[in-house]
Amino acid sequence: MFKFLKSNKKYEPLDKELRKYFENNLLWFIQEFPDPKIEERKILVPVEQDFPILWDKSQNVAFETLKIICLNMRIDYNEVELDFFDNGIKEINMGYETLFVESDPSIPEAAGIYHPEKINDRYHISIDATLLENPDKLIATIAHELAHVKLLGEKELDQNDEMLTDFATVFFGLGIFNANTSFQFKTQTDRWVASSMGYLKVEEWAYALALFAFKRNEIEPDWKQYLNLTIKKEFEKCLKYLFDNENEIFKFDD
């Protein structure tokens, strides 16, 4: 019989460099966007109270969603131009089966686009029209594009940083949606469908959300219940790590 030795290695989420990346950037967000305080920021969750919208797949759904997210991110809704483009599911023949992959930001045709040039002095974002059929992905995509508005449009950054933009959705209260839609794999009657959105990996989303909760001193945040099982499991491990090692968090080598 084989004997398996238990590892005494201390659990650490991500590697140190990545952890410090998120810690440093969270402090940056707090400094650059001090109002409201991080403890007072509203976390939007997938309930009717937060999104009182009739999800009828019409374009009006996107505009109503845009209003709610703009309010939470402190962006003037009237300063944002929203339009739509067709993208949808792409078919990949793998020989033994066909895989259908939905809009993926790693390729040019992304689920959403932030346009650096304004239209009539308004910020301009575009989203894939197929997202009207999926509320969670619609919310996540609009949140990501509005994060570009906060960072690039409001001149907080000189150059685009997609990882930081994803992380911004956590700080501005939309991280649940963006984390949950970061990767999904499901079966349909006649095919497998893989869906990925965003630039952070599952473990990175988990640490980003846990760090946000830690800074808000939330040992057991109510909003945790809305995370999908994969993210939630990693989130709980990360949050425990943060509180178990709180003296090491936000400490940087000279």
Uncertain segments are 1-7, 90-94, 96-109, 184-196
| Main β-sheet, spatial strand arrangement | 2-3-7-6
Main sheet attributes: strand count, strand direction, barrel closure: 4 strands, mixed
**Can you give the mean pLDDT?**
86
* Category by helix and strand content: alpha/beta
Could you say which overall geometry the principal axes of the C-alpha atoms support?
A: globular
Helix content: 25-40%
Number of helices: 7
List the keywords.
254 residues, 7 helices, disordered N terminus, four-stranded mixed β-sheet, three-stranded mixed β-sheet, 38% helix, alpha/beta
Write structural notes for this entry.
The radius of gyration is 19 Å and the shape is globular. The longest helix is centred in the middle third of the chain and has 19 residues, at 135-153. It starts with 15 loop residues before the first helix and ends in a 10-residue tail after the last helix. It has helices at 16-32, 59-73, 135-153, 162-171, 175-180, 202-215, 229-244; strands at 80-85, 90-93, 98-101, 112-119, 122-128, 183-188, 191-196. Residues 1-7, 90-94, 96-109 and 184-196 have low confidence and may be disordered. The protein has 254 residues and is of the alpha/beta class. Strands 2-3-7-6 form a four-stranded mixed beta sheet, with no helix packed on it.
